[in-house]
Write a structure and sequence with these properties.
This protein has 195 residues and is α/β, with parallel strands linked by helices. It is built from five helices and seven strands; from the N terminus they run ββαββαβαβαβα. It has one domain: Rossmann fold (3-Layer(aba) Sandwich), CATH 3.40.50.
Length: 195
């Protein structure tokens, strides 16, 4: 799979607007300030394909990217307190509405900040993915802020806190330093080819 072949396709403000799927999808989900746009840009060898904002919670749509014939789907970040209740409810509808549809999900990449214990919302997202039997991997972001040893220890702690098995895929990543990005690319490519 060629991660260089990537382009923005479309953004949707409600789940009803989503097009019928035509190719395997890889969805990215996580808290508003977890670094989703930065990670997507790093995966796709780009600086600003996914818009990175200084203000968390800016992704208020579902954004589709065509990546070598597959679709990468950037879901709105959850848990950002500084937006209205109606806006938070709309984001919730977007995320759940996406997962409620019968979509050809090759993989869901759940992003969690490696420096903090998983939040209640992170745990709820992993539960939702497990309940729906969706294939997922955890990307632990901002690993450059820890030593290699701390990152390894924290990865184990995060997996335990999320109730994941030892062999569940979890990758310590850093969009800034490129840590774990090749591992994540391999996971995604293998999930797409398996689908």
């Amino acid at each position: 799979m060629n991660f260089h072949k990537a382009q923005f396709e479309a953004a949707y403000g409600t789940s009803q607007q989503l097009p019928r799927p035509t190719s395997p999808e890889v969805a990215f989900v996580g808290r508003s300030n977890v670094g989703k746009s930065s990670l997507l840009n790093k995966l796709l060898y780009r600086k600003s394909l996914a818009k990175v904002s200084a203000t968390p919670g800016k992704t208020a749509t579902i954004n589709f990217y065509d990546v070598d014939g597959a679709h990468f789907v950037d879901l709105p970040g959850y848990g950002y307190a500084k937006v209205s209740k109606t806006e938070r409810a709309r984001w919730g509808e977007l995320i759940e509405g996406y997962f409620d549809q019968d979509r050809p999900l090759a993989l869901v990449v759940a992003l969690i900040d490696i420096r903090h214990d998983p939040s209640e919302l992170d745990c709820a997202m992993i539960e939702l993915l497990q309940e729906r039997n969706l294939p997922f991997a955890v990307a632990l972001t901002k690993a450059d802020k820890l030593s290699k040893q701390q990152a390894m220890r924290q990865t184990t702690l995060e997996k335990n806190a999320l109730g994941l098995s030892a062999d569940a895929p979890a990758v310590a990543t850093s969009a800034e330093k490129g840590i774990g990005i090749d591992d994540l690319r391999r996971l995604i490519a293998s999930a797409i080819s398996a689908g």
